[in-house]
Every structure is written in C-alpha cells, then in structure tokens.
Amino acid sequence: MKMTKITKIFTALLFASTLVSANTIVTVNGTKITQKDVYEGLMNATKGGFNQVPAEKQAKLGQQFLQELIAKELIYGDAKKTGVMKSKKFKDEYKKVQENIKKQLAIKIWQENLHDSIKVSNKELKSYYDKNKEEFYEKESVHARHVLVKTKSEAEAVIKELKSFKGAELKAKFIEVAKSKSIGPSGPRGGDLNYFARGRMFPAFNDAAFSMRVGTMSKEPVQTQAGFHVIYIEDKKAKKILAFTEVKSFIEKRLKAEKFKSVMQSKMQKLEKKATIK
After folding, report:
1. Which tens digits make up the pLDDT trace of 173-231?
2. Which of 207, 213, 251, 205 is nearest to 230 (CA)?
3. How confident is the model at residue 21 (pLDDT cuts 50, 70, 90)?
4. CA atoms of 89 and 84, how far apart (whole Å)
5. C-beta separation of 147 from 181 below 8 A
C-alpha cells in the first residue's frame, strides 16, 4: 500500500469518533476492510480509550492495526487455497469451537433472561434515593477554556492582546486566539475544556479556575507542568444534590444488579440439588 494512501486513511481516522462509517479504505483480494472495522478494532485494543490517545500515536496504531487486518486476510485466503479448511485437524478444531460458542451463548442468554425477569418497583427506587442522598451530590464545577503556550512571555502577550475585550467579544476573541495559538489538544475546539470538578486539573490551574468569575480571563499566566495557561471561565455550577429523576436509572441498575446476585445464588443452589454431580 502506498504511503500517500496510508496517510489519507489515518487523517480520516483521527476524526473517527464522529465520522465512523462503512467506507472501504482498502480491499484485499475482494474482501473490504472499512474505516469502521479499523476504528472498532482500535477501540477494543485500547479498551475504549482510543480517542484519548495523542493524535500522532493514533495514526501509528491505526497503521499497525490495518496491516494486521490485511495480513489476516492474506493468510486466510492462502489457507483456503491450500486446503486447510478441508483437513481433519481443522474440522475437529472447528467443531470444538462451535460447541464452546454454543455453550457460552446459551449461558449468556440464560443469564440475560434471568436478569430481565427481575423487577424493581418505583417505591424501592425512591426509598433508596431518600436514604442515600449523600451518594448523589454533584460537585461544584467550572466550564473553562484555555490558551496553552510554552513560555510565560507568550502567555503575557495573549493576555495583552485580549485584555481590552469584555463580555461576548472577549469570549469570541478568546476562542479565536485559542484556535490559532494554543498548543494543547483543546486548541481546535477554541480551548474548550468543558465542565470539570475540583481536583481534575493541575493544582495551579484548578486553584485559578475556581477563584475566577464567569466571563473573565486570568490576569496573569498560570504555570503548570504542561506550560503556561491563559484561562477563560465560561460558566460555573454550584454543588447540588441531583434530583431523583436524574439518578433513577442509575439506582435501578444498582438495585437490579444486587437482586440478580441474590436470585442467581438461589437459582444455582436449586440447580445443584437437582443435578447429579459425582
């Protein structure tokens, strides 16, 4: 595969979280490998963390995984041509795999049916909520943007450029500067860090962000291990107890899981009594 095509493929894959599709990126002896195949494989390989991997590493991992998929198709094709699938060894192993899959699938569906049969009443849900409200506190959080640069002088220049703006103009200009000057991964998003609670960011960044008012920008550069930051506070949320309706589904999953364990234990005891185990 030519390097230009690989580069094109993985430029697209960097945006896979929003553009995942069934578009074919390569065909191996008539078998299509799609962008979705590669992205889902990468998500499985990184346990769902592919989107958090740095962009340059995403491209490298993507290239490696695509080459693995191509290799598998090449080997599978040759295995069919050389008669591997007609051999006794293949047939015996395939039969074992089929039996194992059949057993695993039957157990999975049996457990799902048992789980689905368990009901949790609204009264139980509300009772749990009322007795455990301390579990459902939403911490104080801020919605911040930042411009990350390497040096203090660069950060001071950003502050100087923006300090004359106020209100909506400040926000708009801040986003523009973040897109053009920030070296952080949030730069293309206008420096948007979304909402975060205390303790999620570097201490110096955390302290500065939570001490600022909504609609304001930091007056001095904030230094962390990542570099120098200029911070803008877009919104704040005070600490609060989440409403019952907001956590109802979470409580239901928890109580259902607890009931499932109990029902499962009882069911297994009955099955063991009826079974012949020598």
Report:
1. 999 999 999 999 999 999 999 999 988 899 999 999 999 999 999 999 999 999 999 99
2. 205
3. low
4. 8
5. yes
